[in-house]
Amino acid sequence: MLTKAPRGTKDITPKDSYKWTYLENKFREICDLFGYEEMRTPIFEHTELFKRSVGDTTDIVQKEMYSFQDKGERDITLKPEGTAGAVRAFIENKLYADAQPTKLFYITPCFRYERPQAGRQRQFHQFGIEAIGSDNPSIDAEVIALAVQFFTELGLKDLAVSINSVGCPVCRETYNKKLREYLDQKSSVLCDTCNERKEKNPMRVIDCKNPTCQTNLQDVPFMIDHICDDCKTHFAKLKEYLVEMDINFVVDKTIVRGLDYYKKTAFEIISNDIGAQSTVCGGGRYDGLIEQIGGPKGTSGIGFALGVERLLLTLENNDIQIENPHSTDIFIVTIGDAAKTKSFKLLKELRGNHISADNDHLDRSVKAQFKYSDKINAKFTIVIGDDELENDSATLKNMKTSEQKVVKLSELVKELKNVL
Ligand code: ATP
Ligand code: MG
Fold first, then answer.
1. Domains annotated on the chain, with CATH
2. What pLDDT does residue 372 have?
3. Can you list the residues of the chain whose pLDDT is less than 50?
4. What is the Å distance from ligand 1's center to 307 Cα?
5. Cα 280 to ligand 1 centre (Å)
């Protein structure tokens, strides 16, 4: 128990943490190119926020949240996703008073009580963006383009961008009526969840993973075939912009974001390269959300979230290696106590000049120190012994070529800057 992390969580050790740093840096770099700035919000929020924003009828709220009462008897939930917090912070900090749109990105751990399996954990991590304050299809195109550039620069070439329109409150109402009529006829062959959703949120039945439901829903009417002119124009414009950017996409009628305030564009990005066919990124427009949780009326928003663990799996499946950038420039081998003491001055000077350097902390023999220097792949080894101390010099050994030379300590940094 003491030496086992809770089920569904994983340590990220130095064997992998450099990959995370690389992905985070790359994501920050791409966000910056597109003008998205970081929003950091608390790990926990009031439970009510997620109920309202993620939605009472979703799996997340119904089954997956880590909720508890704190010592002040507040209902608290560890964030299961990033949008709710970002949007709450947008309202609370009155970002709507600045020039719009507000373009935000976040990097955050998320918590969902799910059955752990490959690419599914209880604590996982998301990168996401939110563009708030524009209902123009050009921002939809921008959000998708940002995700595509991020994945492409990581080396994932065979991407499938699937887009759909989930309509708006106007066309949704007519469609929901049609859909309910259809579902009423099927009610005896559908699962309980689907029958329940039929009343509250019928479009969500399309998302049902139950194989029986999937077989029986093959001729289900889709929202996109019933959207109004306004939604049609929005979708057409989005496609036009994507074509202009040479972004390959397909229209997938089955993508749904089944809440009332989700509107128009919904999309997913799947990596088609060899290996797992999993959704790494999902996003969509949420035009009613901000108003729903108490923000200014009519504030639109669109965003996406991508799972970092799934992204790493996808990269692995595609044989895309991330190199560990860490290397030790210098290891200092010391012979005797006086030399060890002297090595600290040298270490300070080297590190102060941004040359990475290390010395022995285990009282190893000279031979063992050289072995260790080899093991950590130091580029050069510096030897300080009695002779060197007397002459204020050190022996510098190139670990690749085994070449050695004696260098004055006062000249060492200059010499190293030449060879490193
Ligand atoms: P799924 O259908 O796989 O459960 P989801 O619809 O719940 O996904 P979203 O809420 O859209 O996923 O979250 C965005 C991304 O976060 C997903 O595409 C996925 O990459 C990642 N993700 C979601 N849940 C988990 C989890 N439990 N563990 C790891 N990654 C996850
Ligand atoms: Mg899920």
1. 14-168+227-317 (3.30.930.10), 330-419 (3.40.50.800)
2. 97
3. none
4. 6
5. 8
